[in-house]
Amino acid sequence: MSLAIVIFGVLGAALLHAIWNTIVKGHSDKLTMMLTIAIVQFSIAVMMVPFLGYPVPEAWVWLSLAAVPHTTYKIALAKAYELGEMTKIYPISRGFSIVLVTSVSMLVFQEELTGVMLLGILIIVLGTFGLSVPESSSAVRLSGVALTLCLGAGLSVAAYTMLDGVGVRVGENATTLKSIATFAAWLFILDGLGMMTFMFLYRGRSAFIAAVETRGRGLLAGFAAFACFWIAIWAFAHAPIALVAVLRETSVLFSLILGKLFLSEKIGVRRSFFALVTFFGIVILQFS
Predict the structure, then answer these.
(1) Is the confidence at residue 285, as pLDDT, over 70?
(2) Contact, 214 vs 36, CB < 8 A?
(3) Which of 35, 45, 179, 183 is 20 to 30 A (C-alpha) from 132?
(4) What is the pLDDT of residues 196-251, one digit of tens each?
């Protein structure tokens, strides 16, 4: 599989990721929208299972482990969005995950990254964190709780990225489209069950009644979330985990634009500069 194809695929997934995050942030009840997304993903996956079957036995442990941070990510991110702007929260959570994933993939999984790849990753990390810096000293800053939730979301992203990346490669014929789709489908089922269980315990049946009322935007967000995660899992089977992870987190660029257009969040000279820095890092990876 050509690395260029993987790169363009992951960049497309990054756009979809920013779209569904914008929908969540723009909704008055963030947790309900996250529940709707989980239900949509769960429903699509259930319909796919009769045609896909079951994953290889050794993949179940990875699926079970990965489903937990997928769910905690949704919860932490939704609560963080209740406390701050998406253009601040999103870059911090995603940038933190890049640092963790790159470190673990190199130190633990012994993935080999060229010097040019590492340079591109470093530039993207700097640009991503820079996007979260306030434009001025008078700008509203994130509270301690919001920052903690951001880091919690980032930790969850790092955890499920590594678990997804390892799990999808388990077994013979792991890189076939059917094997990848099977892994993704069962991951969405387990994640959906986790999110639905949490919301039932947290809010009871009223959570699901509220979710039905979000079905318009919820369906769009759910399909976008399903597609971007599926693309990411496909990419994990064909490229280094750290490379896929850092490219996926370029969604912060799209989130910046969407936050400006649809959420009326401010973008100044400083954020524009760091957006260009991030883009420069992407270009370096493209030619690595």
Answers:
(1) no
(2) yes
(3) 35
(4) 999 999 999 999 999 988 878 899 999 999 999 889 888 887 888 777 877 777 77
pLDDT in tens, 119-136: 877 887 787 777 666 665
- How far from each other are the two terminal CA atoms of the chain, in whole angstroms? 15
- CA atoms of 268 and 273, how far apart (whole Å): 9
Residue 70: burial class (beta carbons within 10 Å; 0-12, 13-18, 19+)? buried
HSE-up of residue 216 (Cα within 13 Å, Cβ side): 2
18-22, 115-119, 189-193: least confident range: 115-119
Q: Round the CA-based radius of gyration of the chain to a whole number and report it.
A: 18
Nearest alpha carbon to residue 108 among 41, 173, 56, 158: 158
Question: Token pair for residue 161?
Answer: 């990225």
Supply the DSSP string of 125-184, one letter for each residue.
HHHHHHTTS-SSTTSPPPPHHHHHHHHHHHHHHHHHHHHHHHHTT-STTTTSHHHHHHHH
For residue 89, give both structure tokens.
């929260």
Q: How far is CA 170 from CA 9, 15, 36, 45, 112, in A?
A: 22, 28, 30, 20, 19
